[in-house]
Write a structure and sequence with these properties.
The complex is a heterodimer.
Chain A: E1 36-42, H1 48-56, E2 60-64, E3 71-78, E4 84-89, H2 101-110, E5 122-128, H3 132-143, E6 149-154, H4 156-161, E7 164-166, H5 168-175, E8 178-181, H6 190-199, H7 214-229, H8 234-244, H9 260-273, H10 278-297, E9 298-300, H11 308-316, H12 321-362, H13 367-384, H14 387-403, H15 405-420, H16 427-432, H17 437-443, H18 450-459, H19 469-479, E10 484-485, E11 490-491, H20 492-517, E12 528-531, H21 539-573, H22 585-595, H23 597-609, H24 616-624, H25 631-642, H26 650-656, H27 669-681, H28 686-695, H29 699-730
Parallel strand pairs in A: 1-4, 1-5, 5-6, 6-8
Antiparallel strand pairs in A: 2-3, 3-4, 7-9, 10-11
Helix pairs in contact in A: 3-10, 7-8, 7-9, 12-13, 12-14, 12-20, 13-21, 13-25, 14-21, 17-28, 18-20, 19-20, 19-26, 19-27, 20-27, 21-25, 23-24, 24-25, 27-29, 28-29
Chain B: E1 38-39, E2 48-54, H1 58-66, E3 74-80, E4 83-88, E5 91-96, H2 97-100, E6 103-107
Antiparallel strand pairs in B: 1-6, 2-3, 2-6, 3-4, 4-5
Classes of the chains: A alpha/beta, B mainly beta.
Bound molecules: guanosine-5'-diphosphate.
Chain lengths: 734, 111
């Protein structure tokens, strides 16, 4: 091993992380044994997330970068010599640029302008061995930064299988940094990668320099000097100067660099005078270099024929079969959410009933008993029952993403989306919205155009998210019979569920079209989308993703929903009144409930929801679910728990509920459908509103958009539920 | 095989361009387009062509070049409908029609 042995104190001392002092010029101060800061960059679909998981396991945490909602994944691991390392997963990007908020984060961190992220000690570039040509573009930019770099040559197995041979020692010679072949999916090469990361800071990292044509070199010198004055490390300044030649608009993170646009204009003119095209210079230089590297390091067995991906695409992207497969796939997803989750749900429900019974028997009858059994167990348990369905939904969405199908869906939908005024890429945030509007709205970051992004953000919450699932599931389970339709392929319940998702989707498209023609008028930006190769997703990655989301759901159930359940229980129980003793037992309880705080609030709300066919109990549940939709179910659980004695399951109680005056059923199927339609449209999620505020521009602008979103969705919800109920009655259905 | 990593046995090769690609930037984009050139959007599935000029928004051009879709690059048309499916430097891209209409290419002779 040629590299000198490492003293623990050396680690991390090279780059103290201050903005001005980065680069190789930093004096080795006696650093305390702080963890080695490692940043992970790479093109999308290289297996970066998988590699991150392989390196850190479950020692990771998801947060946000300051000021923006770009998800920030951080994790810890130990290098083979026992040193702690802090791994930061930067958003995937094809090149260092500031074209989208995501890309800007990676760039800012790597040139030492990250708002709350110090300059990393080591940068790991994840490159897809199968697509080295394109992946080396980003790598060549990072190599110029003057930071210690390690290249992880991931998907080495797939490259070998595709007949691609990479001469790794030769590639190390070309790049001048450590190159470690890895198979992140199977954990191969991870130890070697850890070792290389530990050694990287001790190797000279002088920042490779591209030899530019004479004219370009002198034209760019003043730009680089100016950037250096502004605090960029010298090598990063050079890289930036070259990159900015092709960037027409000033970038936010360099806004405080005085005279930059003028300097750049001068540089462009000088380069054009020398007969070069400034915008093309960077791409030509880098791809020119890459061509040479590939010629020396990579050999391909036989010219590529039709690959497996080609054969699958021939069907999946077929003009007729493609859309048919898409619809069938969606139907399968929603049907299986219903059927596969049932046994698990029954088990959870059984467990909750058992727990309620045991606890109820243990505690003396009275308010405490009621609080625990009707408030906590019925409320939180009622929501927890839906955990299996939510986990399944995230599993499916994760599968669609990791397998490469998501991009195909975007391509298939491009034609439709263009009629709406957006392009296919906006469909990906919408599809993710099926799982949860929060990641969906964040996924809108990949839509480059501002107006298109806003229009996408405005409609993502119309996609039925997993929090609506409990509401649909409760109502469908209670009021839609499980009869088989379509020759037994689906049940009426599954079809109703699919109908709700379909309704939300179609409305989302319609509303987006409306926004694009009014508030957000502007030309549709053309789509640029990579279709990755199809892959069998790794079970581990899927499991980690589902685990993260499921634990978030459970945490919500244990905090927000628990707190609301207790509040609602208290409101339903107090003040205690003496009911009319002449009434039968059940009616006495009913009377007590009506006279409680909750009852009074409910009666106040009732006029607003009467036209929709709801009684005050539904009104209260709706009002409570503006904090979080699942609360509808827990509130119902509490109301019917407090108001009755029996142990019957909630759906049975809903079916049995009668209007005290008319004696007719409170919940007709028409009311249930109208209620579901209300939930399809209403924005009842504080997290979504918070994320909209930030992603729509923050501050006053963000609040305005969030307000618009909330208002239009509420109007839509009320209007549609009104039309369903009153229309249905006119037709004699209710 | 998978345990290979940095062995600094010899100095790294300098980052220089030896490929012919670099000289293409000496050509002026405004120069007359050669005969036979056409918009990429006009190419049929199965066609192969060389990119001559990107006439689109700066941002899109910048993105395309970073993806390896730059002047002088060879592209294969896989499918063409509302958007085009293209193979470029070993990766598959879908480009909207608004883009492909503004990209001038030199189709290769069928063969
Ligand atoms: N064959 C192979 N597939 C991999 C490897 N690493 C990741 N993958 C797969 O590549 C896909 C994309 O991985 P992901 O980590 O989500 O990529 P990211 O977009 O770069 O974060 C997933 O289906 C992984 O299972 C690998 O080393 N070999």
């Amino acid at each position: 091993m040629a590299s000198p042995p490492l003293a623990a104190g050396d680690l991390g001392a090279r780059h103290p992380g201050s903005i001005g002092g980065g680069g190789s010029s930093a004096a080795p101060t006696a650093a305390p044994a702080r963890p080695l800061r490692v940043a992970l960059v790479g093109n999308p679909n290289t297996g970066k997330t998988t590699l991150f998981n392989a390196l850190t396991g479950l020692r990771q945490r998801v947060g946000n970068f300051a000021g923006v909602t770009v998800e920030r994944h951080e994790g810890r691991f130990r290098t083979p010599d026992g040193h702690a390392a802090l791994l930061l997963d930067l958003p995937g990007s094809y090149s260092l640029s500031a074209g989208s908020p995501d890309e800007a984060i990676a760039l800012e961190v790597l040139i030492g302008r990250g708002r709350d992220v110090p300059l990393p000690d080591v940068v790991v570039v994840v490159a897809d061995a199968q697509h080295l040509e394109r992946n080396l573009f980003l790598a060549s930019q990072v190599l110029e930064l003057g930071l210690p770099v390690v290249v992880a040559l991931n998907q080495f197995d797939a490259a070998t299988a595709a007949g691609i041979t990479i001469d790794v020692p030769e590639l190390i010679h070309e790049l001048g940094v450590a190159v470690v072949p890895t198979v992140a999916k199977r954990g191969e090469g991870i130890e070697a990668l850890r070792r290389a990361i530990a050694q990287a800071p001790a190797l000279p990292a002088d920042g490779r320099r591209f030899a530019l044509p004479e004219a370009a070199e002198s034209a760019l010198a003043p730009v680089a000097a100016r950037l250096e004055d502004a605090g960029l490390p010298p090598s990063a300044a050079r890289m930036e100067a070259l990159r900015l030649l092709g960037v027409a608009h000033p970038e936010a993170h360099l806004a405080d660099v005085a005279e930059l646009p003028a300097l750049l204009a001068r540089a462009r003119a000088a380069i054009a005078d020398a007969g070069l095209v400034p915008e093309r210079l960077e791409a030509e230089l880098r791809y020119g270099w890459i061509g040479g590297v590939l010629a020396r390091c990579v050999t391909r067995r036989a010219p590529r024929g039709r690959t497996a991906t080609d054969r699958v695409d021939a069907v999946v992207l077929h003009r007729v079969w493609g859309p048919a497969i898409f619809v069938a796939l969606m139907a399968l997803v929603f049907q299986s959410i219903f059927t596969w989750a049932t046994p698990l749900q029954d088990a959870i429900e059984g467990g909750m009933t058992w727990l309620g019974g045991r606890v109820g028997a243990l505690l003396p009858p009275g308010d405490l008993n009621s609080l625990v059994v009707d408030g906590v167990i019925a409320g939180v348990g009622g929501v927890l029952v839906f955990l299996p369905q939510i986990a399944l939904l995230f599993l499916f969405i994760g599968f669609l993403e990791d397998s490469g199908y998501m991009a195909r869906a975007a391509f298939l939908m491009d034609g439709l989306m263009r009629r709406v005024g957006l392009h296919g890429k906006s469909f990906i945030p919408m599809l993710s919205g099926y799982a949860c509007a929060v990641p969906g709205i964040m996924a809108a970051r990949t839509v480059e155009n501002e107006k298109d992004r806003l229009a996408t953000i405005m409609v993502v919450p119309l996609m039925s998210c997993s929090a609506r699932l409990p509401v649909y599931a409760l109502l469908i389970g209670a009021f839609v019979p499980p009869v088989a339709v379509l020759g037994g392929a689906l049940t009426l319940q599954g079809v109703t569920m699919l109908g709700m998702y379909f309704l939300g989707t179609v409305t989302a498209l319609g509303v987006a079209a409306l926004f694009k023609r009014t508030l957000l008028r502007g030309p549709a930006r053309p789509m640029i989308l990579e279709l990755p190769q199809y892959r069998w997703p790794s079970a581990k990655s899927l499991a980690i993703g589902v685990y993260g989301r499921a634990s978030l759901f459970v945490r919500r159930a244990g905090t927000v929903i628990l707190a609301l359940s207790i509040v609602l229980w208290a409101m339903a129980t107090y003040p205690k009144t003496t009911p009319d003793a002449s009434l039968p037992e059940a009616a006495q309880q009913e009377q007590q409930l009506e006279r409680s705080f909750l009852g009074r609030v409910g009666h106040a709300i009732e006029p607003a929801v009467r036209p929709l066919g709801y009684d005050w109990k539904i009104g209260v549940s709706i009002a409570a679910s503006f904090a979080a939709r699942e609360v509808f179910v827990s509130t119902m659980g509490t109301i019917y728990g407090v108001g009755s004695e029996g142990e019957a399951a909630l759906p049975d109680r809903l079916r049995a509920e009668r209007d005290p005056e008319t004696g007719r059923a409170t919940y007709t199927p028409l009311v249930a459908i109208g209620l579901m339609v209300f939930y399809v449209y209403a924005l009842m999620c504080i997290s979504t509103m918070a994320v909209t505020v930030r992603e729509a521009g923050g501050g006053r602008v963000g609040w305005r958009w969030a307000g618009v979103q909330f208002a239009y969705m509420l109007a839509l919800a009320w209007g549609a539920a009104f039309v369903v109920y009153q229309g249905g009655r006119l037709l004699g259905w209710g | 095989m998978l345990s290979l990593f940095a062995r600094r046995s010899r100095p790294a090769r300098p980052l220089t361009v030896v490929s012919a690609d670099a000289s293409s930037s000496a050509t002026d984009p405004a120069a007359a387009t050669p005969p036979g050139a056409c918009p990429l959007a006009a190419c049929a599935p199965g066609a192969r062509a060389t990119v001559l000029a990107l006439c689109c928004g700066h941002q899109e051009a910048c993105r395309l070049r970073a993806l390896g879709f730059s002047e002088g690059t060879q592209v294969d048309v896989v499918d063409a409908r509302h958007a085009m499916l293209l193979d470029v430097r070993g990766t598959r891209l879908a480009l909207g029609r608004a883009l492909t209409a503004g990209i001038t290419v030199q189709p290769h002779a069928a063969g």
